[in-house]
Records
---
Amino acid sequence: RSRISRAQGCEYLVWPSLIHLPSLPFPPHCPATAMLSANLGSQSLHVDLVAEPEDAGGWMAFEVTARGFGAAEMLMHWGVGKKSAEEWVVPVETQARSTPEASRVPGAMQTPFPGPTGEDVRKIKVEVNSDAGLCAFQFVLHRKPNEWMKNGPSNFIVDFAQAERSKSFRELVKAASSQEPDAKVSCWSASGVDVAVIGAGKAGGCEIQAIVNSEQDLVLQYGPAGADQRWLSSTRLNLEKVKDSVSKASISLCAADLNKFLMFVLHDPAVNQWLKDGGRDFAFELPAAIASQAAKPEAPKPAEKEKETFAPQPRLQHQTTKKFSAFVEEVKALEPDARFAAFSVPGRDIEAVVLATASETECSVHVLVHSSVELVLQYGPAASDRAWKASKRVPLARSGTEKYEACFSVPVAEVDTFLMFVLHDGATNSWYKNGNSDFEFEMPRHEEWDRLQREQEARDKQEAQLILGARDAFLASRRDREAKSTISFAAFELERDCGSMDISCYSEDGGKTAKVEVRAWLHPRLGACVLHFGVFETPSARQWSCPADAKAVQWPAGLVKVDDKAGQLQLQKLEDHTQGFDFTVPAHSEKEGDETIIEPDIGGLGFVLKTVNGNEWFKPEGGADGSVRFSAKGRWKGDWAQIVDRIVEAETSWSQMSLKRRYEVCLEFVDSWEKGSGGTMMRKLNSWNTLVHVDSSKAVWSRMPSMPLMDLPDSEGSKEDFWSWIFVWQRFSFQQLLTWERNTCTQPRMLAATTNQITTRMAELWKAHPGCRLWIRWTLATMGRGGSAGQQIRDEILVIMHGHGIKEIHGTYYEQWHQKLHNNTTPADIGICRAIIAYLRSGGNMSEYWKVLDAHGITKEHLTSYSRPITTEPYMVDTDVNRLISDFERYLAILRSVHDALDLQLAIDHAKGCLPGPVQGKLQDVCNMGGTGFNSLDEGHGKFMKIASAREDLLAILNNKATDPNTIKELLVIEYSLETQQSVLVQGLTAEQRLPQLCDQLKFLLTSLVGHLPQEDELQALLADWTTFSTDCSAKRWNNSDTDSALLLKAMCDRVSRVVGELSDKCQTLMGPKAAFLGGAVDAPKKNIDVFVDEVLRGCSLMAVSLVLQRLEPVLRDIAHLPPWQMISPVDKPVQGELKLIDKMLGVQGQIFDTPTVLLSGAVSGEEEVPDGVVGVLVRSAKEAPDILSHCAVRARNFGVLLATCFDPNISHQIAKDFEGKWVEVKCKPDGTLTVALAERPAAMSADEEAAKAAAEAAKAAQAEVKMNLTNDLGCQWCVRPDEMTKTNVGSKSLNLALLKPKLPGDILTPQAVALPYGSMQKALVDPANKEVLPVLEKVLGRLHPTTSNDEAQSIFEEAQQIVESIRFPTDLKEAMKKSMEEVGEKDGEARIKSI
């Protein structure tokens, strides 16, 4: 908020909304068009806009003025913002410059302030190119060595967007003030609205102009006021739009209306909100010469002597009363609609009369009291329950002997059924009531009130919707706040639906400070709230310390010390109904491995919240105090770090943990996640039947009526990242890498109920979020079934023990297991029960007991670690052992019904109620087929097809939008079990080489993948193609050609391979780092972490598809007579070098091979660079090979490096066996084959020869210059069409596309395209439009030399990048592109496509 006026002919126009500042009054010497102004004690700082772009050749000019800083050396340390005003980017000369000239330092520009003038003023001029797309510039002041001056906790920021927004406003204010040179001008800015008032004296009065800059349609309400700024009258005036968002109104004040001040406020009728100057009305002080013209008020007449007779103000209503009967009777005739009531205080000579009259806008109340002492009236509205809703105190004014009165009005919005009141004698602190109850007066009602009430209720409802909509906006923007949190981020949902909150911490000022932002959406019922918090001195600390003692932290104003451990800060109102505050913490850098991290000097915060009045305290959900750690050390560096922090804390720090508690925490995470993400519901999916049953007459190369099933937003990637964390966490639990019980007791029925809750929730989410189905399904498979048999676990073990005479003796085996079952039953009890049964069946063979436990992953250490430990071994019971075994088998079924979700027969039994009869029959056939073993390929393939048929029926039910979540839960478990069995069968069919069977297997595997990955439209297209063409191709009758059939299948297999490879890579990327991080945090065995992803993928359809593709590859290559090698980058001459084996190309990035080397490599993704010294790369497997157009392939072709892929694993295995470490010669033959043979190794140079050669190369490099072509355009055109493309003007991708087009049938299309040929960059640089850019770019790149260090080269390239981004689009290029595109479009555009 600010008020700057113009007086004595000096003009000060201030636009405080253009600067990110706290509410500060601006100094009285601020110049016109000030962009920034701040007081720094006895010193001041101003930034003024001194030239607009249109007046200075496209450059904005700002003048930075520092006053009172003395003559000592001082620098302006500055940068610019491109994406946002708060961003700090180092500009280049074509973007921004300064006078005096700035010098570049790491991370900033620095400009020295010239020496001071006689008035101790120092100035810097900053010019910004308006075409550079910058948002702002910001700076701090610096005195060497270590003094830095900022704007409180923030930098000084000048926001250009705000300047542009208020440009019309500034122009109008300037024009209005220039027309009246003697006028007084005052300006304000509040809540994003700019206001200016210009007052000029006229004959006998004053002319006022009010100019307002706001997007809303506002109404001006104004009135005169004296020195106390109390309104004397009020007038409303509509503002008229003048230009853009600027409105204007004119006011003429006559002498009678003149006073010291003109008061005003702005009203937004659309939302019924009032805009003021902070918490006060705007006050425009009229110039003294004008105010002196005000009409002098008449002197008040002397007060007459008080009369003994009581004559109250004419008012209201009546009823029988002794003291005021005459007055009441008089009013009865004047106001027949008035309502009144009389009251007396028993035992006291006190009588009260209340009179009330209702009008359209208020209810006027007059209270008359007869009393011998002075009293105070306390009153408030109440509904029919007589409960006070508010309370106000009004002193009673003496109106005669022992007579007092008070008059007040109750607005319609506050009127309720009753007016409650009591009387208070302050002298004796006595309260007078109606006996034991408060006085109650039934309020009158006006016929207009009901309509007004309905309107108010409608407005309240609309406002509530706006406020609750703000919560959705708050949650939606949470990801943005998390994204910028480079140090830490924590999000909280508050208990009792009080709201949502998050705290972000990120580095500033090159890592010297860290900024913490506290943001919250709090329910409107809470009103203003306070953060009650303490500081953690280190990231691992648990004890709070008072924030006021952290002197180095720049806390917001208003911090209150509560005690030695806590302080309080009120949350400030921000935009969009949010609250919060910011503070800045000193920070330092530390090394963590190869990474430099920024660590704040405090470890974090612990907090709770309360309302300002202290009536309500609240915490994050779960009931614990909120805590956030300001440290990146040892933390997960990716998305969802706050979730990972809580997982690690729960698993490593909580004193108590169990399966039940883990599921509850997981539910909290999921609910919080869903609040911030929208589900893509099943109703958006097309019919499953449409998808899997393809009409081959309509299918044309991956184009089906149902393709794609749906379009998903980009946020799906973030959803998968969240769910992959949930899955990794729960699978760790499933594998017993996390404890199932620690210092806690969980009744079986409670565990079963929680398991039911979380598994049902998973089914709901599977339906609501198709993009996460793979992960949700996998997560569900790690959990128990739940069911309703939880209590039976406790009851039935006692039945067995009592039925067989097993005593409940402390320390015996069966009693120890009984105690464990009572307190914490877990899935381990299934293994224990089976081990007992095996022990009893063997007649007491203890090795059988331990053998079964080992098969279930249960060790002696596990047994003794339970909160109710099992420290002894079982013993043979003196009973009918066969009956005991039978009872334990029955008990095992109870345990499995709660804990074992993946037993197929059990799952089918549970789901019978929701399965159609035919599907039940198919599933029972699978259960009865004798497992996954087989004696012949026909038997194995038959079992595969049985499972495939059952899975297809289940997927149809699952993908039906009418299927309810409970059914989905049961069927997902069955479907997962079937997938596991199908994958085992595929792994066992290693000898399968029959083409029809392999094609059928791939078709059904693709169908299952599509059922769980409906967002993968490429998979859907592949299924369409495979369904349409694979039958004819597998029978070798497509196009009546064996070769064509094999080639078509090979093309589709390659496409499937790419998709499956990408999905597998995505799973590896999403799971691998998370498993490694969580494993390290909980100290899980390395062997489990190393195989974590492989174990997951091995049991799913992705692995099965990969195996079928491997079996199809040699079959198809043999039929199509394809060579075993694919030449990605062939060479004309043989290459020689030492053959070396590597796991993957990525592992040798940056390595330099001193000896010519041929690499026999595993995975080559295509993103790698070919290392120096490598002359050839042979990829061992087609599934790990790069694409022919990948980066690695292009680089290999450009540098003449051999790159080839082997499709026969036997050949690559033999090369590795015969030639590893040997000198070989590799030849490419014209028929597409490749040979590797031993060759004679060249003689090695001596050490002296190598040293001399290295010295000569170093000397040559030191004298060399880096030559870059920035001006030779190679005589190119601006733009070329496909028919103009040659190998000299475009790259191979464009050229191959252009050459392919004329060779294709008419119904196979190629993309419509034009290209910018080689040289077009240089052509643009030498164009007159960039005459200022080219010299600067040449100057910057001229600093490059072969000996330039990597750090210096990086700085040079970053500067060059900024310059290149400022290149202007030449007009000739624009016209040439337009012309070429129109020519291509006319020939190959939409009309041609429509005809096809």
Note: Residues 648 and 1081 are 7 Å apart (CA to CA).
---
Amino acid sequence: MLTSWRQLSRRLPIVTRQQSTDLPDLALLVLSPYFVQSSGTGLSHTDAKRRMEEDFRRNAERPLFAELAASAPEDLPHVYSSSTGQGNILSQSGKKFILPVETTRHVESYYEEIVVPPAKKVPPRATERLIPVDELDDLAKRSFPGYSSLNRMQSIIYPTAYGSNENMLGKTDVAMLTILRVLNQHRTQSKLESLPASIRREDFKIIYVAPMKALAAEIVRKFAKRLQWLGIRVRELTGDMQLTKGEIAETQIIVTTPEKWDVVTRKPTGEGEIASKLKLLIIDEVHLLNEERGAVIETIVARTLRQVESSQSVIRIVGLSATLPNYIDVADFLSVSRQTGLFYFDSSFRPVPLEQHFIGVKGKPGSLQSKMNLDLVTFEKVSELVRAGHQVMVFVHARKETVKAALALREAASKEDMLDNFSCQDHPNYGHFRHELSASRNKEMKQLFDDGFGIHHAGMLRADRNMMEKMFNARAIKVLCCTATLAWGVNLPAHAVVIKGTQVYDDSKGSFVDLSILDVLQVFGRAGRPGLETSGEGYICTTDDKLQHYLDAVTSQNPIESQFVKGMVDAMNAEVSLGTVATVHDAVRWLGYTYLFVRMRKAPLMYGIPYDYVQNDPLLNSKRDRLVLAAAASLVEARMIDHDKDSGSFTITDLGRIAAKYYIRHRSIEIFNRELRTQMTEADVLSMVSLSTEFDQVQVRENETKELAQLLDLAPCSVKVGKVNVLLQGYISWALVEDFALISDMHYVAQNAGRIIRALLEIAISKKWANTSAVLMGMSKAIEKHLWPFEQPLKQFNLKQSVFYELGRWADDYPVSELVQMSPAELGDLVHLNPIHGQAILNAAKQFPAIQVSYSLRPLGSDVLRINTCVRSAFTWSSKHGSVEPFWLWVEDHEGKVILQLSHLLLRPSTDVLDVTFLISIPDGQIPPFVIIRSVFERWMGAEDEVKVSFDDLVMPVRPNCHTPRLNLPFLSHSTLQDNVFFGELFAAKLRNLNAIQTQAFWSTVNTSSNALICAPTGSGKSTLGHILTCQTLARIPMQGYVLIVAPRRSIVMEWMSDLRGVLAAMGFSMSVVTGSSTLAPARRKEIRLTTSAHLLAALSEKDLAQSYPGLQLVILENLEQLDPYYELAVSSLRRTLQTQPTRVVGFSASLNDSADLATWLDVAPSAFHSFQPSDREQSLNVVAHTFAIPHSAALFKAMARPASATILSIGPGPAIVFVPSRSQCSSVALDLIVNCTLETGSETGYLSPDVSPEFLQPYLHRLRDRGLSDFLSKGVGLFHPDLHKQDRATILELYAERIIRVLVVAREACWTLPVRAAAVVVMGTQYFTVDEDGARRQLREYTLEELVHMQGRAVRHGDMGHFHLFCQAEDKDTYMRFLEGGLPLESRLLGSDQLRQWYKHHRERGHIRNKQEGVQALSWTFLARRAVSNPTYYDCKGTRDECLSRIVDELDGWFDRG
């Protein structure tokens, strides 16, 4: 406490009223009652002194405790500060922290200077000791080579950093120790392995978020060198860099920037999968929260904290920072424990104490006077330092300025006759260095060296920069003028650093901005030479209007505030896109993880919140709610999300998803909504991109107008919007630009325009705009290749300029496809060059990507056409193509406006053929004249082609009119089975009444002898009718006989076995699965034989075509909608042999779109033909289609996980089945479902019933062969796919049947063997990949419609509502819904099949088919013969049926003759 005027006057200089505004707030508080008034009235100096002493005496006489004491400050054990209390002292206003008391201020005629002294050292505590390296374990010990002990700061943080997983806030020393902690936790316990070999590198990832790209490279080098002995890989991931899957897999530490990590974690796959293995997130320079980029740091921290909460994973967060004013707030934001993880070290812990000088030069900013004063003060300070024997680094902010600054200093020294002070000619190695410089071509560097000056910037040759660094380090240079790259990238300290000026050109803003505090701190960090000097000095010379700004920021006077509100709208869109925010409630919770929330509670007035508001609502729920709703309203207006105000749910739109993926601002999306059209030119695209808000700061400066006018004259496209458009066209055209700021602007514009155009391309594709998509593809490649779409595409190859010139002159109108057909000589003649040049052109033309496209038309009904497309590679693969060549293939309408369907494909060197299927609608039978198949390669300008698909000969089938109306009949009971009372009683246990469809079809199916066909929805009881018919038939025959059940799959056969086993045993009938000769052998008793269509065909092939089969009473054909070549040939052959005997044939099928030909083929009587539509299903089934515009990828399944989980939770406690494309995706989808369930419900047990205890599950889990299933089952999710052990499948089905687990994730290929149903069935995607046996060909396939109908049937439950949710591509929705609601198409698959060829060959060889006529006669029994008449285009059939069959026989004979 100050007790006398003398003590006060020592600390605070006496000031006038005018000067008082510059004093710290505490000084104003003390002196304000005693100031001399500027008007001359008030107290004199003597009176003021007397009054102050009286006040001090009165205060000393007051009681020590006049009222209740305020609560004591929180004890923070790891705060080390030389100032009073915990950390810095707040001013009376509470808005800023005060400067150290010894701070002085000097005012000169042309500048003002504030000097902040070094902080006093914090004395060691009694508990402190330096930890010897010998006490560390092997991993830590060997990571500190050359150290005898950890330094003081490392010793303080070591127990927490290396001995725990606590989140931490501290200095840079924390980073390495926490990294070593992760490595130590991921080691095997084997003592036989060496230490590096014991690290499980594939189990973890460490992310280091550096503030700048330049620093990222330095950190990569530092960590790579430090951890090289452990074999740890460190990689940089910044800017437009991408890491391949292989690179990600082999990298353990990734150094990135906040913006890049935000982009990466927005991706659910690829680079985004890094987050799933993340164990440590280090955020360097966390005080950037106070700057515009701080919103990004808040976003990534909030996302990480929510990931930790939702996935229950352990991700350690470590914040590194310079001295923070309100470090407690930042610690709370990072979820750092104040008692164990918060480490605060003030500036006294610097290796070398730093004296800071803040200089504000007078004069209007930017004026000549201000610049002159800046030069004067810079020279004054540099000369003082040099005269004192110190080295100085002068930092400027442009490469050219380094030379200018050095020359200005040399000239000023010469005028003042002080050059001898700067000269280093007496240095012992001066001659040696002078000789080294003679090899350099940098004239300025040579000239300046003679007088003791040096220059350094990124534009210099690496050898020259190394030379400057070596000379400065050897003290052969006294003053080094450099740019900030030296501070970031090279550890080259000096006694003093001087920052000359604080105006820096920012290409992202297109203007000069203030030098960032981060740069200032980095430069000041170079002041002082550890181990060589005991002090350092840092000078920042700025304009007087910026003096207070830098003083406050560098000395941490102002609390760090949140900047999140500015970026909240776009950040929330990213979370909605990622699926982590799905409702208003989610968004409010998400805001609770931000630094904004921490500061709103701590300093509500700063954010417009009254104090009483906080008292009434301590968690600020209402405020957060308003912020969320305001952000949601902005996103809805931009059409980026849909907001259901009743439920509060958010749904991402294609626009929102694309904006999040490409980091596009919502304000830009609003502009694109206005400007993007179905038909656009290149000029339109350039104008639209130029309007993007990403370029708002790119403004025209006076000194640029002449050069911009020159660029405008060269622009090939008309310019509607100014500077950005001109620069972008100049960039594409390789235009030369001289002004350095304009060069920066051009690269900034090009870099961002490329990203924006890629986003616009996805938007256009999602809207199915053919013309705009093609134009945007061209412009995207134009920016990437510096090549206009109208230029010669062979410019993408390394040919001579003379060749390009002659190509443009003589062959500009020749497409590459024509050039590739010529010989070298012809090409040489064409371009007026020799054959050698012609060969070079030919080689390039052959390597230019091209494909050959063939197609066939396959109508699937009266209004749906399938176009089967075959794509063949038609170019020579070379190293220029890399490992893959991606391209788009789409079908567009005849006007070229609308994309009807599209596919994104990959060509590989081993690719021979790609098969692609397109389904397009032909509404109301209005056949267009043609459509166009367009191909566009992604990476090659001009590599595109189109194929016209004529519909002149297209014949679409007539609209069917064969569906049976479902009658409103009273349901028949089991008593209807009157032929056998015992038989009726047996079925009474299975059903009480027949349903509507069974009732309507019962009489003609069971009580007549004519052939019958029942087509009805899945789950409508068709098989039950078959069971009744089978038993009734056997019961009615007097002696031996058999019924043959034929099914396309063994799983269906086994299902029949399971259903009939009990009934048949009670009735005394036998049942068996048959193959080979026993399939059609005479029966010795009453029996049921079950077989597959393939086995039946094999059995029939061994028989004579005219042979009869006595005892065969009934043939039941199950699941005829799955009619494949085996099935069709088996049924055709059987029907042909049964034409002379009274065997009855009854077929069952799912609902078909057109079943008339199937009935005719089976010779079904009209009275026994029942064809019901899917809508006739008696059970309630809610069918919903969800569309997605994301191509088939892991990203698609991440996007589907949230709505799938919401669907499961929406049905209450009912069971659910989730179908995924392959067994490899079961685990990842199950994990995503569990994470989303946890996010939605907050439950740690996932989908497991809350009344199921872990102890109850243990007996089941112990039975598992695959222990990895336990984690899923304990969360209520089971997996079901063919690779599971039989015992595990049985255990999972048992748990599901008993309702212990709720969710089954089932692989597509297992859908036929799945024996259970569910309240909800979710089909996650309708595409899957197939891979050839040699792995060379990877093909994307569509689910068959039969598979989808079968999956849908799993949601049909008797007596309960079912829900079927189909997640599919947007363009496929209408087709799928058309067939799910209207019935499946059924066509013959015989034509061109191997089965038909083998069948024909077999019968030719056995003499069953001896000539062409017999071949035609044999085929006339097939379903193909019927459909060739009804749907001739599908089978390329022209003429009559017999003519078509004759052509097929000719092809088969030709194949047979060729052997």
Note: The longest helix spans residues 740-766.
